[in-house]
Amino acid sequence: MKLSRKRILSLTAILLFLIVLIFTAVYLKSVADYKRSVKETTFSNLDISNVPDGVYVGEYDVDFVYAKVEVTVQNGVITNIDILEHKNGRGSRAEVVVDRIIEEQKIDVDAVSGATNSSTVIKKAVEKALTGEK
Predict the structure, then answer these.
(1) Nearest in space to 51 (alpha carbons), one of 73, 24, 27
(2) How sure is the predictor about 25, in pLDDT bands with cuts at 50, 70 and 90?
(3) pLDDT confidence of residue 7
(4) In this predicted model, which residue has the larger pLDDT, 60 or 93?
(5) SS3 label, residue 69
(6) Which residue, among 86, 85, 87, 94, has the nearest Cα to 114 in the 3D structure?
(7) pLDDT, position 76
(8) CB atoms within 10 A of CB 126
(9) Residues 112, 93 contacting (CB under 8 angstroms)
């Protein structure tokens, strides 16, 4: 059975459409999973004054946003937070959230407007560093 050129082009177009449709569906599911992960992120009421002196590393990943931080604690006070890695879309402005954490000496500070998801990921990375959570 010989297929006409027109038939082959039609089948190719249908196949390409289906491939694009599948990739779009997978991408949209990934975005929905990412948004759900950020929304479901919670913070403990960690008493920083009980954290032993030291340098701690923590990371948090929700696929589209990732952060790895190094937190320094001296005399029960966070003295420094270095962002070692921060994979983000347009959320680089969120990096100032570490200044708020140091200033307020708590993890669940206000997010940076316009960079809420990145703020959440950075804050959770800090919490995981201080709690040793993997």
Answers:
(1) 73
(2) very high
(3) 84
(4) 60
(5) strand
(6) 94
(7) 95
(8) 29
(9) yes
Alpha carbon 22 to its chain's center? 25
What pTM was computed for the model? 0.84
Q: Given phi > 0 = left and psi -120 to 50 = alpha, else beta, which region is 110? A: beta
Options 3.90.550.10, 3.90.1010.20, 1.10.10.10, 3.40.50.150; CATH for 48-131 is: 3.90.1010.20
Which amino acid, one-letter code, is at 66? Y
Angle at 92 between CA 81 and CA 29, to 5 degrees: 115
Burial 24-53 (b: 16+ CB within 10 A, else e): eeeeeeeeeeeeebbeeeeeeeeebeebee
pLDDT computed for residue 72 by the predictor: 98
pLDDT confidence of 1, banded at 50, 70, 90? low
Domain spans in the chain, listed from the N-terminal domain onward: 48-131
The answer to whether the CB of 41 falls within 8 A of the CB of 119 is: no
